[in-house]
Specification:
It holds the Pfam family KARI_C. The protein has 342 residues and is of the alpha/beta class. It is 52% helix and 15% strand. Helix 3 links the parallel strand 4 and strand 5. It folds into 2 domains: 191 residues, NAD(P)-binding Rossmann-like Domain (Rossmann fold, 3-Layer(aba) Sandwich), CATH 3.40.50.720; 135 residues, no CATH class.
């Protein structure tokens, strides 16, 4: 039986599932297409759970790593033919061409296709056939966390969605796969009923707003401290290199965004509460709403698709600027001294 509770916020209801029936897919061949960050973690979790997993990959270092870990590796077309459950674990930006060339021609009716993000289906870059189940199981953490939580007997949050319910049991299949990779059925695990659209919007919104701003705000904070006589080492350790951010993030997850402040000194709390809001200016609020507009209307998706077609000129230029900048150079010296880089 699926266990869920209803959560209401501004008239939006989400179902939270804490368990599922993994036996629905236990006798099936699961083809993991790609063996990168998420693919390797999920494949290992599935195998450890007793599921039959094969890997579909081009001949590269990822295929070699999969073989070294004891997996059988096939070409992508062959893996799709052999699999009852086909998991799209290759990067979003290469999925459309791989789908057209290697996956769609080899899908047969009744298969289950699992996407780990909603991106390509939501934007229409991939148009799956109607005679397969098309589901989404999107972990809210990187592959390392997916694997570590599984090994430590813990679950993790996923967003689940259905784009095509050919079998009539697509939602059950989404929960089954969530259970199979260790997301639910364990402490801390939850599957949130969502959609390909919602997952795409929320994921990109984080990347385009607070997550990116956070990095550049820390970098500018470093510049300000150094300009005011603080040593590069002390500035960097204070802002991010000491590991304090990990403890703060963990406290946010466990206690809540603002509730975790109670664990700080009153001086720290007062500084957070008086200065924090000053950075969220009207201009910042407008920028955040512009970010979500460009996500929802496809502006960003078209921009990123064009960037890839042109060979990543802007992407490469931005990385070059970062790596030539003072923050990167100073950080490199400190991290080498600390033994974190070679």
């Amino acid at each position: 039986m699926n266990v869920y509770i209803n959560v209401y916020y501004l008239l939006i209801m989400a179902k939270l599932y804490f368990d599922g029936d993994a036996e629905l897919i236990r006798g099936k061949v699961i083809s993991m297409i790609g063996f990168g960050n998420q693919g390797s973690a999920q494949a290992l979790n599935l195998r450890d759970g007793g599921f039959n997993v094969i890997i579909g990959n081009i001949e590269d270092e990822y295929a070699n790593r999969a073989r070294s870990l004891g997996f059988t590796v096939y070409s992508i077309p062959e893996a799709v033919k052999r699999g009852d459950v086909v998991v799209m674990a290759i990067p979003d930006e290469v999925q459309p061409e791989v789908w057209i060339r290697d996956i769609a021609p080899n899908l047969s009716p009744g298969k289950i296709v699992v996407f780990l993000s909603g991106y390509n289906v939501y934007y229409g870059f991939i148009k799956p056939p109607k005679d397969v189940d098309v589901i989404m199981v999107a972990p809210r953490m990187i592959g390392e966390g997916v694997r570590d939580n599984f090994v430590n007997g813990k679950g993790f949050p996923v967003l689940i969605g259905v784009a095509n319910n050919y079998s009539g049991r697509a939602w059950d299949h989404a929960l089954a796969y969530s259970k199979a990779i260790g997301a639910i059925g364990k402490p801390g695990g939850v599957a949130v009923e969502s959609s390909f659209e919602e997952e795409t919007i929320t994921d990109l919104f984080s990347e385009h707003t607070w997550a990116g701003a956070f990095l550049f705000l820390l970098a500018e904070g470093y510049n300000v401290l150094v300009e005011n006589g603080v040593s590069p080492e002390a500035a960097m350790l204070e802002l991010w290199a000491s590991g304090e951010l990990i403890a703060i993030t963990k406290a946010i997850v466990e206690k809540g965004l603002f509730a975790q402040l109670k664990g700080h000194s009153t001086t720290s709390q007062y500084g957070h509460l008086t200065w924090g809001p000053r950075y969220v200016t009207d201009e910042v609020k407008k920028l955040m709403r512009e970010a979500i507009r460009q996500i929802k209307d496809g502006t960003f998706a078209r921009e990123w698709a064009l960037e890839r077609m042109l060979g990543y000129p802007v992407f490469n230029r931005l990385w070059d600027e970062i790596m030539r900048g003072r923050v990167w150079q100073d950080e490199d010296r400190l991290y080498r001294a600390l033994g974190r880089r070679k």
